[in-house]
Amino acid sequence: xxxxxxxxxxxxxxxxxxxxxxxxxxxxxxxxxxxxxxxxxxxxxxxxxxxxxxxxxxxxxxxxxxxxxxxxxxxxxxxxxxxxxxxxxxxxxxxxxxxxxxxxxxxxxxxxxxxxxxxxxxxxxxxxxxxxxxxxxxxxxxxxxxxxxxxxxxxxxxxxxxxxxxxxxxxxxxxxxxxxxxxxxxxxxxxxxxxxxxxxxxxxxxxxxxxxxxxxxxxxxxxxxxxxxxxxxxxxxxxxxxxxxxxxxxxxxxxxxxxxxxxxxxxxxxxxxxxxxxxxxxxxxxxxxxxxxxxxxxxxxxxxxxxxxxxxxxxxxxxxxxxxxxxxxxxxxxxxxxxxxxxxxxxxxxxxxxxxxxxxxxxxxxxxxxxxxxxxxxxxxxxxxxxxxxxxxxxxxxxxxxxxxxxxxxxxxxxxxxxxxxxxxxxxxxxxxxxxxxxxxxxxxxxxxxxxxxxxxxxxxxxxxxxxxxxxxxxxxxxxxxxxxxxxxxxxxxxxxxxxxxxxxxxxxxxxxxxxxxxxxxxxxxxxxxxxxxxxxxxxxxxxxxxxxxxxxxxxxxxxxxxxxxxxxxxxxxxxxxxxxxxxxxxxxxxxxxxxxxxxxxxxxxxxxxxxxxxxxxxxxxxxxxxxxxxxxxxxxxxxxxxxxxxxxxxxxxxxxxxxxxxxxxxxxxxxxxxxxxxxxxxxxxxxxxxxxxxxxxxxxxxxxxxxxxxxxxxxxxxxxxxxxxxxxxxxxxxxxxxxxxxxxxxxxxxxxxxxxxxxxxxxxxxxxxxxxxxxxxxxxxxxxxxxxxxxxxxxxxxxxxxxxxxxxxxxxxxxxxxxxxxxxxxxxxxxxxxxxxxxxxxxxxxxxxxxxxxxxxxxxxxxxxxxxxxxxxxxxxxxxxxxxxxxxxxxxxxx
Amino acid sequence: xxxxxxxxxxxxxxxxxxxxxxxxxxxxxxxxxxxxxxxxxxxxxxxxxxxxxxxxxxxxxxxxxxxxxxxxxxxxxxxxxxxxxxxxxxxxxxxxxxxxxxxxxxxxxxxxxxxxxxxxxxxxxxxxxxxxxxxxxxxxxxxxxxxxxxxxxxxxxxxxxxxxxxxxxxxxxxxxxxxxxxxxxxxxxxxxxxxxxxxxxxxxxxxxxxxxxxxxxxxxxxxxxxxxxxxxxxxxxxxxxxxxxxxxxxxxxxxxxxxxxxxxxxxxxxxxxxxxxxxxxxxxxxxxxxxxxxxxxxxxxxxxxxxxxxxxxxxxxxxxxxxxxxxxxxxxxxxxxxxxxxxxxxxxxxxxxxxxxxxxxxxxxxxxxxxxxxxxxxxxxxxxxxxxxxxxxxxxxxxxxxxxxxxxxxxxxxxxxxxxxxxxxxxxxxxxxxxxxxxxxxxxxxxxxxxxxxxxxxxxxxxxxxxxxxxxxxxxxxxxxxxxxxxxxxxxxxxxxxxxxxxxxxxxxxxxxxxxxxxxxxxxxxxxxxxxxxxxxxxxxxxxxxxxxxxxxxxxxxxxxxxxxxxxxxxxxxxxxxxxxxxxxxxxxxxxxxxxxxxxxxxxxxxxxxxxxxxxxxxxxxxxxxxxxxxxxxxxxxxxxxxxxxxxxxxxxxxxxxxxxxxxxxxxxxxxxxxxxxxxxxxxxxxxxxxxxxxxxxxxxxxxxxxxxxxxxxxxxxxxxxxxxxxxxxxxxxxxxxxxxxxxxxxxxxxxxxxxxxxxxxxxxxxxxxxxxxxxxxxxxxxxxxxxxxxxxxxxxxxxxxxxxxxxxxxxxxxxxxxxxxxxxxxxxxxxxxxxxxxxxxxxxxxxxxxxxxxxxxxxxxxxxxxxxxxxxxxxxxxxxxxxxxxxxxxxxxxx
Lengths: 896, 896
Known about the structure:
Number of helices of chain A: 35
Oligomer: homodimer
Largest sheet of chain A: 4 strands, mixed
């Protein structure tokens, strides 16, 4: 993968599906393309050049959707017409009085609490319906099996189909995408109303099926969707809802609301959302998250009281452990063991999940088959899982008839199941009975439950429906903790304490610790500790939980990326890996060790031909603008799209028509009057006069008016799709603006076919070639080009550590390396990624994080495995790819 | 207050004392100085110029201690000699294996847990001793009173004296200073061993006196001290303990440890420390805080178990509220009332605290008296407070005989004191008896307790001993919550719930809510909610606590800055105010509205005279380096100190001695050989040849070798005191280096008195003047000057919101505003502060936050009240102040 453009492309390809949807077509296309190129050989015909130009435009058009930008999402300007002036005034008064952040956050909390409650309610009904069907058919095991299996298959298939048709972006957890969006990457389709509907309905059906799936990740996405839509709605009433910074802040708050209203855990929600979505968090925004999440959690629980489910507001999975002596100091090693084992388990889960995705992607036969029957994959997996959990069948050994919620409640029970290792001694009540089997020990049931649920969850989360993995992992963790706890209880039937009073061991406390540790290990977060306290309503086990979570994190982080980062890599979203635990080598690597010294740049005095060449060879989205090739003083950076627009304008049809018109007029004039053929020259001179006036002799950028008055882009703000270069036309070309603009922005093949009405394109290909050659030799006019006058700069001695900090702080994707104003290199996310992941050698030593060898097979492999096809493809992609074809190369997939 | 230099100066003056220690001397000095200047008039004699120069040097010397820098503190290079090579290797192996962050954090946690436990133990002994004395003398009330009063007076006086003598930096909470240090400001003396000792012993004595003081703030400071010292110690064994970024990260973790081991609250500790010290937090560092704080809290509680205080690890102030029905939904309005009232109370507390400080400062008579008898103030306040709490006296109405800890335990009691409003019905037990008074209702006792403790705490925290205000405020909040709870219990004796079962109201729950709300309001944090859960070991009241804390924060934040920000302003540490709640005007202000357009700059081709003038007029710590006055292309920025060094070198004694020597040699040569007088010219030419080679004709900074090879300062990293310009000497001046360096760095008056041994300074004043004039006309040689090649740049259109974000993200204190490379303005913290605090008018409207009028009298007053004396002083300060005199102006104090 060369350059940052690869990320951008990846965004388009693999956005929703994790199992290589277009792989087959890509291979075919690439081969065809290669053959075609070989045929046409090296000749650089006029047609090819103009074709390149078109493709540059297409590229721009395609990129607009997912272009990196300061804006998290793009809002249409609100229609102001249908609101009366009076309402607007009232609204404005209200807004200025109350402070619109409050209103927004309260509304967001309210809506999300309602959504969460309704979704929970529907899921509960779905699950009850399945139980009712299963229970009603107890006369015939086969009918029972059919009912048990058909119901989830239908629901999951419906969910997958519905999501696929309405908004494929709704598939999966949503946390990886939110992390990417909060980094400043625009994933526009991810925050639309269609996605919202697809996600909510898809999620309800998926969870209603009883598969081991969670609602947490999707709720983060739903809350963000909700915030985005609410912003859009509120912007109808005026206010500052279009502001980019504000929107990012609100999205961050929305993520907190998502977790908060899902678990009724405001504090844990805020912390968890910070940990999984941010690298740097503004403490300033803290209150937003707390405020909205608290309100949301409050309403969510009030709804339960109102529905008579509860008597008052309490925790979701309330535990009743004794307060006076929650655990003995000597139990701590057992808790530590849970933590370490959970760390390995969490890493294994992430690895397994990725392995399944890659296996299905890489097996061409499977892949081709699944591509054709797109709903077969979900159906098959559901069939497999539900068959295995069928209670009269294998399910009897793994408490198969319990729903996820029931399992968790029983696992957190404060009574001990197994005294002295004999399960029968205990009087099982209610749902706990499911864990009891006449022939089999409760330990065996737990072990089978853990093992089966482990791979089932890893498998189920690859189904293309809206679903998360947090809750299944949480339950598995609780089961593991329970297992350890029951073992301890069997080992020390009278507790460990020797000071007189008998305090028996509480296996439920172990379950709490296990749940927090495993979910913490999978997500690489510490705040799962807080979530379990809020979920159980008890904080007595705080120290064991914290110890286990920290140990689990330490182990898991050194083995695997987090589940969300793993998905980010699978989906090829742009990312920046975290600096690991205590790798002090990072402090010794300097920017000069990792920077690319061969920077693509354009000079102030370059001609269009240089521009053309640079655009064809480079991959970066922005190009450095230097004063001259000799001085290399960095003046700013220009976006690729801007330069493409400049070039298109210069070589575009409208300008050519203008030329033809001029020539025709000149011809006419010459026929009437003599010596009027320098008209065209005048034109050129005129356009050159308004040019950005740099007198290279004096090294002075004199403050010319057009430059000074231009609304320059603020530093660090990349233009959104809205900020297209509207004011490209120069000087006397006014009257052909409309067509030129269309040409620029529609970028559809038929725009080229449009005809001016007054003159006819009578130029031959030969003439066009000559004209184009002539145009290319002109000096570039940067007058109407948006230049970022303060691109981020580093110096050679900046450490990798600091560079990483700056990149994640400011959400940069590249930075220039300068030495007293002179441009000497560039560092992009890619170089940084490479350096952090340890493929850079500094001072002769291969620097890599400890335990990296464990990780290697999974994540940082095959940077050099690119095939010839890949290289060819990479080279040609910017030139030859067609806009309709969103096709990843096979080697792309391998190299993740 | 003009320019950023004011902050710097403030650092020196008011670092430790809040009540204007040097005010009197300053007035005298200023008047004398003004008289002297009037006398000497406008004549610019040689002596004055060289004096200025000396003062510039002094200034630099003085500033080195508290210079803004990327380094939080400066470490001496470790002596490597006494460790054998073998040990080093073993150590290195261990470090590379285990990961030194772990070791460091574990050590830090361990040490801090021990310190916390020992301090607690000593405090408990002190308090017991007081009780024992008081109890033993119950035959005679007067003797009892004497014992009750003398004991705390002696302890506080000792604490104040000890701290004052050993390390005045140890006074106060330490959180404001840590916030400043974590912003990147160097407050060197704040992290020394002496301060550590002073803080620990001072704190123990102060808290042992039983005054309403807390240990939380000081513990944040102690933990940071501990981290700094541990870093220093660990750096003896090699490793990367000198790295600046790492040290900042470790300090942030240390703050978490401080809170964590103080309350045994790891999660709350991490969150609280983030909220009070950071504006942007790296999620990457999260684990460090959690890890160290958990370990520390664990050890802290294990020590209690080991000491047989507890049976197992539990919460510090364990509560036993019922779990099944903690509160009714209909009680929520009461909780909301607690929140709102606490918000007002918190703001009042901050205001009261500041008022006391300002009153004492401004009353000259009091001030002068207190200056003389420095220990009288603490003694007087202690006398007042302990007299009022004397149990047989007024103390009987306010539970005076309870210590802070006992009060808190009784307030969080889960039983109801007052049923039906009649206190006597309840059987008071143990410490709770203190709240019962035969004549007076329990409500009256609570009200008196709240009112008295409120002003006592505000007053006591102004005593110059190491102390915090968190715990007193926490107790007052708990009392207020209890008051509301008892009222509710009296109002609804059978609880509010109407569904059959009687659930009486739990006043202890109200106390928890009140404690969290009031401490949250005073500190502007939400994480006090988490702290109370961890302190009480129960999370059942999560929703009421969250609601109350958020409401309290909303109210308090709109009325007053937080207690820590208030102290930062009182102490005049550099700060950046937070953007308030939902002030959307912030999004519309642009940098161009607030920037200073009249930027002080130096050009590449300037001569020393320009440098001299710029240094005398400007106040900013860094100066912009532009290519030329015409082009204004920003090349970088140079620190003031660097330029001062350049100028000193050019005009310094050593160079003059060199000149004299040359002249003498030339004289000698002329006596022997003819025509050797151009020697000196050669010298000058030689030194000019190595000069930074810019050919202004070609606008090219050609990559000359000396520039390319120089280790340039990384972006965003400001040099520490270690990075002094060691390599100033040029060319042939080698042999006079030592004296010149001494001259530069010692900056003591007697350095000037040192004599070269070989030649005598036989120049007359007239000759020196001529020589200096000649020197000043030379072009500046920037060759050995450290230039920051990438100072932070903004553009005119950057919004205030984004500017604020960038400033707080990167800890900047100024940024240049450029337009395509041209420097057009500068924005410093001061401008930003002004703009945020609402004294900037944009588009004709005075922009100010809502409710700002409440705040005005306290915080943003008198920007224009500067007196003539002030102006004079401000103007002359950079020229005339003497190094020994740390003297703030009176008007400085007023204008905060």
